[in-house]
Amino acid sequence: MFVPFLIMLREGLEAALIVSLIASYLKRTQRGQWIAVMWIGVFAAAALCLGLGIFINETTGEFPQKEQELFEGIVAVIAVFILTLDGVLDA
């Protein structure tokens, strides 16, 4: 129980650091009017993550072990595809 707490704490601190860096950048570049939009994005992302987490927990909780591993593999392949596509489109 303690290890998942530490992982979530670390991830939360990383997210807070990123949001504070973006807010600082917006203020220093005289784009303070975009801070409200940034917060809308932060809360939308948090709501989406929470909803998706609940959905995945509810749908995969009843999978047998083999199907859960297959589901995790498919999600990992989709994540790799999206990150690769992002890297290709940025280049």
From TrEMBL:
| Localization per record | Membrane
Pfam families per UniProt: FTR1
User: In Gene Ontology terms, what is one molecular function of this protein?
Assistant: ferrous iron transmembrane transporter activity
GO cellular component entries: high-affinity iron permease complex
Q: Which key words are in the record?
A: Membrane, Transmembrane, Transmembrane helix
Q: Which InterPro entries does the record match to this protein?
A: FTR1/Fip1/EfeU, MFS_trans_sf
Q: How does it sit in the membrane?
A: Multi-pass membrane protein
Main localization of the protein? Answer: membrane
Q: Which residues cross the membrane?
A: 33-55, 70-89
- Name the family: Belongs to the oxidase-dependent Fe transporter (OFeT) (TC 9.A.10.1) family.
Q: What is this protein called?
A: Ferrous iron uptake protein
